[in-house]
């Protein structure tokens, strides 16, 4: 039995494989993070965010903090999507209050220098953190490994920072061969990183395409779904049984196309996506995930209950994993998260 067998029979995995549950399993994007006082304390002891991600004991502890506090059905490994460009040899920094900063990738020489051979060695601490979490956590809870999708990683690498995406899209028009080459390398890197996470104990995977938004229809297959499909195929060749969630943030209206072209098991829906339309697009057996607005969670009260009612009703139309449409924000009160857990589990 490989290590990942623990967690394999969890409600989360069964739902991803197409079994609707009476109460949808729940986890929250960014469930580990600044809304928890114990995270802020741990973070203060680990000044550099990347070093924190590469410290197995600290990363495992951050992963487990929300698991101790909330009855979540899954933990997501505490790491970041930008460890992949970093492991390929790009310069990645996290500046206080500014988010990630990268030295922008320019020509063919920069792409040629991306070094796939060092990826798994450089990311060994991430895999060790996964092993520690899987060993410490009950088998009923799944462990989720993740990676950024090739286009989202390429966007950060070309643009050099978060938020803006115009230079990356311009680059795709100006240098089509280079962008295809870059996406190819990234698809292999993502595939390898996900396989290594399975070997370390991940029971399910999520691919974050945080910047699927603003991609014209004629480029969607080339930039978004094609490279994701390549990574998915690499993983499936080695581990056909481990379910994969795709999260095409900003492209909820293309979720049917995204599902068809990538072959993922589950579809993460962003805040704006319509659950009914998504269900109609993918049919009754494919797993959907989402999509409570993190601001409704932060606000609480009647507005939160209304939003929950709508999602819980939609979750009866097929396999569904309860989640947010984007990450928990730091100002979120813990009692609001506890309330959501109770309602989703049918206890309030
Ligand atoms: O709990 C979890 O969800 C697991 C850990 C996780 C982090 N980042 C930790 C983190 C995951 C899954 C990510 C994914 C990630 N990282 C994405 C995809 C999801 C999305 O938001 O669309 C992206 C785009 C990134 C890149 C990134 N990392 C940004 C833009 C930032 C700054 C924003 C911010 O919240 O500060 C980060 C830093 C980061 N990654 C933090 C955490 C907890 C905050 C750093 C800190 O504690 O100082």
UniProtKB/TrEMBL annotation:
It comes from the Bacteria. It is found in: Cytoplasm. Substrate binds at residues 30-34, 80, 156, 210, 326. The record marks 80 as: Transition state stabilizer. Pathway: Porphyrin-containing compound metabolism; protoporphyrin-IX biosynthesis; coproporphyrinogen-III from 5-aminolevulinate: step 4/4. GO terms for molecular function: uroporphyrinogen decarboxylase activity. Residues 25-34 form the Uroporphyrinogen decarboxylase (URO-D) domain. It catalyses: uroporphyrinogen III + 4 H(+) = coproporphyrinogen III + 4 CO2. Its EC number is 4.1.1.37. One of its GO terms (biological process) is protoporphyrinogen IX biosynthetic process from glutamate. CDD domains: URO-D. Keywords: Cytoplasm, Decarboxylase, Lyase, Porphyrin biosynthesis. Homodimer. HAMAP family: URO_D. Catalyzes the decarboxylation of four acetate groups of uroporphyrinogen-III to yield coproporphyrinogen-III. Belongs to the uroporphyrinogen decarboxylase family. This is Uroporphyrinogen decarboxylase.
């Amino acid at each position: 039995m490989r290590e990942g067998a623990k967690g394999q029979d969890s409600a989360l995995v069964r739902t991803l494989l197409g079994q609707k549950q009476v109460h949808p399993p729940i986890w929250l994007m960014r469930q580990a993070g600044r809304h928890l006082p114990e995270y802020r304390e741990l973070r203060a002891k680990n000044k550099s965010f990347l070093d924190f991600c590469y410290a197995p004991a600290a990363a495992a502890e951050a992963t487990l903090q929300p698991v101790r506090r909330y009855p979540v059905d899954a933990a997501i490994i505490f790491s970041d999507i930008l460890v992949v460009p970093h492991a390929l040899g790009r310069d990645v920094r996290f500046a206080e209050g500014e988010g990630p900063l990268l030295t922008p990738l320019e020509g063919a020489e920069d792409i040629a220098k991306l070094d796939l051979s060092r990826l798994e060695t450089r990311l060994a601490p991430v895999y060790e953190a996964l092993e520690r979490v899987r060993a410490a956590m009950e088998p009923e809870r799944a462990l989720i490994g993740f990676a950024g999708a090739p286009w989202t990683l390429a966007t950060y690498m070309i643009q050099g920072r978060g938020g803006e995406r115009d230079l990356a899209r311009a680059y795709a028009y100006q240098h089509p061969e280079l962008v295809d080459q870059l996406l190819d390398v990234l698809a292999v890197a993502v595939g390898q990183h996900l396989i290594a996470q399975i070997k370390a104990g991940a029971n399910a995977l999520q691919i974050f395409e945080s910047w699927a938004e603003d991609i014209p229809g004629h480029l969607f297959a080339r930039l978004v779904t094609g490279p994701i499909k390549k990574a998915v195929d690499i993983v499936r060749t080695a581990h056909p049984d481990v379910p994969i969630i795709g999260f095409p943030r900003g492209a909820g209206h293309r979720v049917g196309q995204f599902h068809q072209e990538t072959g993922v098991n589950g579809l993460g829906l962003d805040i704006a996506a319509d659950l009914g339309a998504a269900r109609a697009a993918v049919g009754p057996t494919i797993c959907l995930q989402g999509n409570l607005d993190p601001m409704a969670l932060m606000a609480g009260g009647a507005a939160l209950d209304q939003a929950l009612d709508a999602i819980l009703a939609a979750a009866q139309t097929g396999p569904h994993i309860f989640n947010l449409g984007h990450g928990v924000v730091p100002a979120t009160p813990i009692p609001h998260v506890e309330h959501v857990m109770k309602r989703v589990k049918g206890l309030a």
